[in-house]
Specification:
By secondary structure, the protein is α+β, with helices and mostly antiparallel strands. 54% of the residues lie in helices and 12% in strands.
């Protein structure tokens, strides 16, 4: 995720229990798309980690927490049940956390609302006003940075509008979150926060070469014909013939592999993302799949490959050699990461000061 975007949604993160705040990757950027595909879809080459039926049913029956009275006071100012319940509704609507997890995190959610209240009050006391032109400029900056980052991962991040919707907010609310973040940024700089210079960014890179190495990686997609591992030989052979038919279609000049994956791949990943597994390194896929994926030429399509999950038709899209990433390649992301780290530290320090100087009372008994 774009590091600056994480700063932009700080105001929301303070309210959304941090659920949307964990998306900034370490530098160098390593795509996590393959982890999502393998761990959650069951449409992959990694072990299936799906919940047992009874746990899934329990999650479906769970209800999110609700407040029946004020959940906290900040210097005598109550934080209403409506405020808490609205934040819960936003998180539920975004699908970021299931209801049974929200019940366990209700105290953390209250603390995030308290933090946001403390920051909002500090901004108000400092009389910080952000002009519409500044908001417009930052929104355009976010769009440009998001597009550049998305291009770097072959469009796997989707659209900015989709991300905003995933956070459970409207475009207008996003714009106001940009205004909030600019105000927070101004508050922090007023308190002495500075951003890293170009010299500091280069010095950090030179002093930490081990932090900028990446393993050999492959970007691939696949079509999966599922077979239960304990199926008889006839079932495996029948599935292999189906895979061969699909491979023949995929091997035709100008064939649309993604469309074929959407049509034939037997798993959610193929339907949603054209079978795209993103970038992965060695030992992240089962050996049979890995061996073929790394051996293929760019854009080459494999014969059906048997794994414990069934038969896979693999298309290799790209390849990255392992080694140290050049400074020119990583400079912008590293600068954003260092800026973001300073913002996070300055924000944490400021919140510690605000908690120490103001009386905060919590009322967990008002949450059911």
């Amino acid at each position: 995720m774009v590091n600056r975007l994480k700063l932009i949604v700080i105001g929301l993160c303070l309210t959304l229990a941090g659920a949307a705040c964990s998306s900034t990757p370490d530098v160098p950027d390593q795509s996590q798309a393959h982890e999502y595909a393998s761990a959650q879809d069951g449409d992959s080459t990694a072990p299936n980690t799906a919940q047992p039926d009874d746990a899934a049913q329990a999650g479906a029956q769970a209800t999110p927490p609700r407040a029946t009275g004020p959940v906290a006071e900040v210097d005598g100012e109550p934080i209403s049940a409506e405020t808490f319940n609205t934040e819960i509704d936003k998180i539920v609507a975004s699908g970021q956390l299931p209801p049974q997890v929200l019940s366990q995190l209700s105290n953390q959610i209250v603390n995030k609302i308290v933090d946001k209240t403390l920051i909002d009050n500090a901004v108000e006391r400092a009389d910080i006003q952000i002009a519409d032109d500044d908001v417009d400029a930052r929104v355009e900056e976010i769009k440009a940075e998001f597009a550049a980052a998305n291009q770097g991962v072959d469009g796997q991040m989707g659209s900015l509008d989709a991300l905003v919707a995933q956070l459970g907010i409207t475009k207008d609310e996003f714009r106001e979150s940009v205004r909030e973040s600019l105000a927070i940024e101004q508050l922090l700089t007023n308190n002495g926060m500075t951003y890293p210079s170009a010299e500091e960014v280069r010095a950090f890179y030179d002093a930490n070469p081990e932090g900028f190495t990446q393993p050999e990686q492959v970007h691939a997609r696949h079509i999966l014909i599922k077979v239960e591992e304990n199926s008889d030989p006839a079932a495996w052979e029948e599935a292999r013939k189906r895979a061969l038919d699909i491979q023949a279609k995929a091997s035709v000049l100008d064939a649309d592999f993604a469309a074929l994956a959407a049509e034939f791949s037997e798993g959610p990943l193929g339907q949603r993302n054209g079978g795209d597994l993103g970038w992965f390194s060695r030992q992240q896929m089962v050996p049979e799949f890995e061996k073929v994926a790394f051996a293929l030429e760019e854009n080459e399509i494999s014969d059906p490959v048997r794994t414990q999950f069934g038969w896979h038709i693999i298309q290799k899209l790209d390849h990255r050699e392992g080694g140290i990433i050049d400074f020119d390649t990583i400079e912008v992301r590293l600068e954003n990461k260092m800026r973001n780290d300073r913002v996070q530290k300055a924000l944490t320090d400021l919140l510690s000061e605000l908690h120490a100087s103001q009386k905060v009372t919590l009322y967990p008994e008002n949450i059911e």
